[in-house]
Structures are given as structure tokens and as C-alpha cells.
Amino acid sequence: MKSALRGATAIVGVADAVSPTGTLPLWGRALHEDVIRRALDDAGLGLGDVDGLACVGNLMAAPELAEHLGLALRWTDTTMTGGSSFEVLVQHAVAAIAAGMAEVVVVVYGETPRGDRQRAAAAGRDGLPYWMPRDTPIAEWEGPYGLRQPLGPYALAASRHMALYGTTSAQLAQIAVSTREWAAMNPDAKLRDPLTIDDVLASPYEVAPLHRADCCLVTDGAGAVVVTSAERAADLRSRPAYVLGAATRQDHSLMVGEMPDLTTTAGALSAQEAYAAAGVGPGDIDVAMVYDSFTITVLLHLEDLGFCPKGEGGPFVEDGKLGPGGSLPTNTNGGGLSYTHPGMYGMFLLTEAVRQVRGTAGDRQVPGAEVALAHGCGAVLSTFGTVVLGAVRS
Amino acid sequence: MSAPWDPAPWPSIAPFWEGLAEGRLRAPWCERCDRPVLYPRALCPRCHDEVGPWRDLSGRGTVYACAVEHRAWLPGFDLEPPYVVAVVELEEGARLVTNVIAPPDDVVVGMPVVLHPVDVPGKGFIARFVPAG
What pTM was estimated for this model as a whole? Predict the structure, then answer.
């Protein structure tokens, strides 16, 4: 059944900050201010219009950022689900706006792992320490075995998919190749040179079966989106991207040993529920923005989103249909694999999906794109947020 | 920096680590699900019933998923790359993240393995596996 919230809200402003160098001149609060200001400007709004703020980071990230901006807000949300946080926060914002708890919500993200490392080195400090939460079960039950996070769990999922379904490294490599073809059309992308399947297979193993070129970038990046009611959107100068459906799911968190089935994610459920809320199905999706931390991540998403049956993702991607001119344009900004990946990439799924349904994606615009989805995935195939956006409200 | 793991088991799961030091794989048992609960906890994550007394497990299982780490990314870790990180499904039903100690090319999904507790210097026993038979 379609959700009562279908089309009740819209994303009316987007901005992102990404550089082909992989580093940005701004960081911290200055970077957040930059993308917030530009996203609001895109919408024709100002900070004084904002009454809700959502972001992740510190324990009190949203109130802290509000304090910095001098905002006294009706509504804040700091729900942290890793890379899917921004799809999850958009879902929360949609509910809050529909319930009258807020009217103009900014969802913002910015991290600068590459610049942070350079600044640390220049100051004679080490880079970031290896992160593993203490006093939680993962430190005791997965930490002792040298499982590298987050790459190791994705390699485990790939091994299982290969064993059950015959998926090959070359099929996974094709995902990186198609994504790179999109990146070539994005002047902000970190990696734009042509890539071949052989290049991917010749790149060294990180955690086999995943090669280095199966893995996402580590770059600086930031983005923001502005969500408001459809009524308010009608008065604004920007073209709205209506939120047709949004759903979230999780079935474990940091521990891959707790994942019920390494080849089927909880995203299969968030996808079903988001489609149902929006009254659409996989055949209606003109542009698929799916989280690509690794090539295997995309493969699992394509199956779980219903674009092909479980186990058939390998043959499905083989003909290059994810790339420019293909039948399922996917990750048209060049993705986490070639565009940017500051750590929690889900923000950039939203900014690109909005641009595509607005028809403002430039060289990489998919002709006639009316419905796009942003499918965020956090931690180790753990937390999911699926947002369906449309150019038309109903 | 050393391996990111404090061998400070919570009191309720001490029998697991004590059993390993004796070469045994032990787990609390959920009567309703008729299967072990690993990692151990008070409420079964499947049926949410209270978990029953500990039992000895066979220590046998099969490789559910396996990956090969090619980089020495973790200072102080005792295995040299390439080494196998695996999820092993125990014959009683639970799964463990572990290492299978064998040449990486020999380890495949579905292969039978058996418990091989290893005493890591300064850390204590951990539950690794080796190919069965």
C-alpha cells in the first residue's frame, strides 16, 4: 500500500564539496558551513528558515552543530548508522515534517580523512589509530582473528556469493569498470582514467577475493540536502525532488558473524518497503544510486533491490548495463569507487539522485529520469536506508 | 599498538575461554532453539528465551565463508599474511569468525574443519580451526 507520506515532502536543495585531488581546502565546521550554505541557497532558503538539523559525528552532533550555527531548533537527529545514516536521517526528517515537528530540515555530512592524515603528518603526528570499540563483543569475538574492518566482512560475503552462485572476480570488476565510465563524465571525480576488467584483476589483492580496485576511495568530501514539505516546496525557486518512499532496516551492526545470511542483506526489506510506500517497483527506477563501498556491495544491492534474482547479479552486470547508455544507469556520479568516499558515502547517493530527477546532472544526465533511488548501506552490510525520489509528486 | 583485543572476558562468558584452554569448545545452549548461542549471551538472539546451561560442542564445523588477508595491517598480530579469515558454521548450528590455519588456496567454502585452540602469547587461547582429518 502506498504510504500517506508519499510525495508529502521533497528535497529542495543539495550541495556537495568534492575535489578531484581527493582533498578539500576546508574541514571541520567550516566545511559543514560551506555545504549547508550552498544547499540552502540552492533551495532559495537561508539559515533563518531552518528549524530542524540532522547529522552524525560526535555524540551530540546535531545539537553541537546547531550551537555552532547559532540555531535554536525544534528538531534535531543524530542517528548514527554508518554509511546509510543520511538515507535514515531523510526518512526521519520526512516523518518529522509530516507530523508537523519541523518544516525545513537540513541533513549534512562532511569528513576529511585524507586531509586529516596530511595535516597530522605535517604536525609530526601519526595518522588515525586503528579503530575497534572496546568493551563490546566485537573486540572479543572478531577482533582476535585479524579481520580488517570494513573490508574483511565484504570479502567474506563475496567468497560466499562466489561459492554459492559461481560469481566471478571479472563480473565484480565489471561493476568498477562501469562506475569509472560515469566518473569520466564527472569533473570532480578522483579517478577518471579508463579502467578495464584486466586492470581490476591485476590490482593487488587486499582481502581476497577483493582486489584493490574492487574497493572504494578514501577522500575528503561533504554534502547537504534540504528537506521540506511539498507545500513549502511549491513556493521555492528550485525544482523539488519529491520523497515518494523511504524505509530503513538493519539485521546486525559491526559483527559480520551475526549477519543472518552473508548473501542477502536487510536492504532487501528496506527496498520492498520503500517501493511499497512509493507505489513503484524496480522496473520504474530510472537511476539507481546504490552504496558502492566495494564492488560486491553493488552486486548484493542489485539483487536485493529486485533488479535481478538472487544469485544472478554476476551475469546481470556483465553486459555493462550499469554504465552510460546502459539499461540500468547506476552510480552516475562515479560512486564511492571513483568519485569520492569520505567514510559515510550515503550523502552522495542523495545529492546525485536529486540532480538526476531534477535534470541537472550535466554530461551524465540520464535522459528523462523521473524516478531515482538512493540505497544506503552502513557498517558491514548491516544498516540500510532506501529513499525513492521522483520528479512528479503523484 | 598491539592486536585490538583485551583478553578480559566478561564473567558470564568465562566458560568459553576456560574451555578453550582445555581444548574444548563450550557454549550456552538454547533449549527452545536446540542450538548453541555463540557468542554467549543471556537471551537467545533467535527466540529471545533465556539461554540454558553450557554444553560441550564437538568442535567440528564447515567453512561458511573465507577470505584471504594479504596485508600485515595489524601490528602485533601473530599470523603472517596471506592468512585465512573465515566464518565457520559449527555442526551444532552457531557460527564463529575465526582463522583457518592452512595454505590459503586449500581453504574453500564448505570444507570440513575442526577446532584448533591457539595460545597467543600474552593474550590467551583463541578458537582457530584447521582442516578436518
Answer: 0.96
